[in-house]
Recover the amino acids of this structure.
């Protein structure tokens, strides 16, 4: 299923799979979809999450403690897909676990599980030749990160290699919540729109309904990650319920009730 | 990526700039103390009864290890780029000290990331960095050692990339670091080659160096790569055993993978998670290896062997008592290999060992492990 955003602005929710455990992750994901998430990023925990701040670092460590693997995340994706036909599903992973599984095998299993796209955090477009070939062969959408520090030429390259949407990173830095949305964010989206017709999703640092509404006014989709992961961390034993509430809260300002409920 | 491209452009410009080369050479001689001697270890040679052993004395360089060659080079690049803040990762602390030293020399703000486990075992260097004016930030995630310090340094860099230069300390990371850091350390091998030809009128049969990230080893190997009869031997941390997690010998049990921007041999589990490593020496305790070493090994040009913690500790005492030189525990791994190799070589053959650093920082660990007092 190609990645499309059904409402504007769409909500993309990131979770670290396996925190606290895969069964709970499934419940959390379904609760998020029920509350209005259009697309889910299934985060694969990694031992060295260099692009992540402390919240997702902690979640990864917890998930790895009981051996959460890429293979298990792909199985989880299939379980989500069984229960949610029209939600976009992206596997969000660092490169090494994918290389270890084998690029070809990974794409094959992902496609069979009903995954729509993949975002590999530490794979720059310049090194993505083999990856793009495998992704295209298995009809998966490669999603790349565009940073405020990327010059226009590079933004063009990134957008050219992307399918589905371009993920704009709101500021220089790692994942994590921030009170003020940086000036960088609007400027980056503007620059991207000059080089691509693909929808632009903006992420990093968004945690409130106000921020969601603000970003939603200039981006096609808003990505919320650390705020969700922290909600999970803070609500042991009622993670899915808490995430559902949080997602509904995020959408409260921006969306009409009929669009938000699914 | 933009920062890496800027760095690569600046480095290429500097390489062609006569003034840069002259200034770097000046700092290497008047400040760092180059050239370092190539010393004939007569008593050690006699004791082992085989090849003639020469020691390349990088331990005599300012700050006590080879690291400063690279720090001076990158320091000058920071000046050219007009940045004022420098960050670095450090394992044993020698690169941290060299970075703090160069920042004090050139007037930059300096932050060094160090695993809390390494801070504990290399206390002397933590103090030196702070005395030199650097801020040392402890990293207590993951294994609390070098790879975790690198993660934190990278997080700082992507956040502060516009004002900050990441002064990476080894031949690792994304391009241009492996090439650039190797180039700054080539002086080691360039000197050694001229020195051995002057002393003996011929090239060595083998060069032996310890390999953590791989900077001192590639630095001494590089100018000998074209001399195909010279064997290049890298010594990895054999740690306390062969199980994953007990050592840091990448070529024994590692497989191709991507860690921290580099594609090379990595110690990892079946799911692609990076393995924990162990070595008595903080500077060798790292799960990946410089990609140029991987290329040399795959091409059959260089060979890589492990030396265990116990062998390195024994070699430390041996070198101290036969030559009056206390090596860093990292360098002791190279000496440990020479202890095995020299006796098997002809007396007419020469082996050069890179003593990449001095052992003062390791007194605490040596005290714990050796029966001295």
């Amino acid at each position: 299923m190609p990645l499309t955003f059904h409402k504007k602005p769409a909500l993309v929710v990131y979770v670290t799979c396996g925190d606290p455990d895969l069964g709970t992750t499934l419940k959390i994901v379904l609760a998020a979809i029920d509350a209005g998430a259009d697309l889910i990023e299934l985060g694969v925990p990694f031992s060295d999450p260099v692009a992540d701040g402390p919240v997702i670092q902690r979640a990864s460590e917890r998930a790895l403690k009981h051996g959460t693997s890429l293979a298990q995340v792909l199985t989880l994706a299939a379980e989500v897909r069984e229960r949610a036909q029209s939600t976009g599903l992206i596997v969000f992973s660092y490169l090494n676990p994918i290389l270890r599984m084998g690029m070809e095998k990974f794409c094959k299993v992902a496609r069979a599980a009903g995954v729509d796209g993949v975002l590999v955090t530490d794979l720059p477009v310049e090194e993505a030749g083999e990856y793009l070939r495998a992704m295209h062969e298995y009809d998966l959408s490669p999603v790349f990160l565009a940073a405020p520090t990327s010059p226009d030429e590079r933004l063009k390259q990134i957008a050219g290699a992307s399918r589905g949407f371009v993920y704009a990173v709101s500021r220089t830095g790692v994942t994590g919540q921030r009170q003020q949305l940086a000036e960088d964010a609007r400027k980056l989206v503007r620059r991207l729109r000059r080089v691509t017709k693909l929808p632009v999703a903006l992420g990093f640092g968004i945690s409130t309904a106000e921020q969601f509404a603000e970003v939603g006014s200039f981006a096609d989709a808003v990505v919320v990650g650390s705020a969700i992961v922290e909600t999970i961390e803070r609500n042991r034993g009622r993670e899915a319920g808490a995430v559902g509430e949080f997602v509904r809260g995020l959408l409260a300002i921006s969306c009409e009730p009929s669009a938000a409920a699914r | 990526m933009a920062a890496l491209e800027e760095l690569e452009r600046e480095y290429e410009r500097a390489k062609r700039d006569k003034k840069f080369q002259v200034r770097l050479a000046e700092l290497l001689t008047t400040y760092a103390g180059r050239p370092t001697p190539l010393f004939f270890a007569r008593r050690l040679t006699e004791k082992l009864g085989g090849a003639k052993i020469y020691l390349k004395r990088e331990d005599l360089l300012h700050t006590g290890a080879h690291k400063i060659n690279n720090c001076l080079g990158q320091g000058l690049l920071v000046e050219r780029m007009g940045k004022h803040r420098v960050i670095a990762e450090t394992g044993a602390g020698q690169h941290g000290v060299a970075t703090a030293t160069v920042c004090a020399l050139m007037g930059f703000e300096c932050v060094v990331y160090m695993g809390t486990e390494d801070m504990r075992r290399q206390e002397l260097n933590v103090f030196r960095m702070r005395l030199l004016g650097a801020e040392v930030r402890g990293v207590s995630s993951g294994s609390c050692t070098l790879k975790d310090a690198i993660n934190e340094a990278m997080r700082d860099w992507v956040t502060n990339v516009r004002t900050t230069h990441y002064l990476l300390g080894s031949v690792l990371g994304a391009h241009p670091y492996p090439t650039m850091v190797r180039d700054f350390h080539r002086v080691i091998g360039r000197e050694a080659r001229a020195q051995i030809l002057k002393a003996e009128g011929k090239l060595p049969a083998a060069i032996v160096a310890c390999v953590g990230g791989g900077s001192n080893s590639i630095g001494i190997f590089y100018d000998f790569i074209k001399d195909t009869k010279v064997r290049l031997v890298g010594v990895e941390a054999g740690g306390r055993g062969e199980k994953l997690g007990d050592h840091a010998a990448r070529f024994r049990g590692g497989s191709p993978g991507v860690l921290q921007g580099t594609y090379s041999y990595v110690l990892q589990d079946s799911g692609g998670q990076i393995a924990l490593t162990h070595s008595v020496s903080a500077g060798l305790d790292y799960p990946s290896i410089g990609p140029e070493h991987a290329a040399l090994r795959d091409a059959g040009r260089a060979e890589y062997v492990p030396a265990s913690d116990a062998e390195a500790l024994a070699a430390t005492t041996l070198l101290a008592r036969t030559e009056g030189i206390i090596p860093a525990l990292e360098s002791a791994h190279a000496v440990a290999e020479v202890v095995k190799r020299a006796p098997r070589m002809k007396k007419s053959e020469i082996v050069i060992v890179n003593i990449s650093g001095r052992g003062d920082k390791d007194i605490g660990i040596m005290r714990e492990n050796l029966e001295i007092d």
Observations:
- Chain B has a mean pLDDT of 96.
- Chain B is about 45% helix and 20% strand.
- The longest strand of chain B covers residues 231-239.
- The interface with chain A takes residues 1-3, 141-142, 147-148, 150-151, 154-155, 158-162, 255-261, 266, 268, 270-274 of chain B (CB under 8 Å).
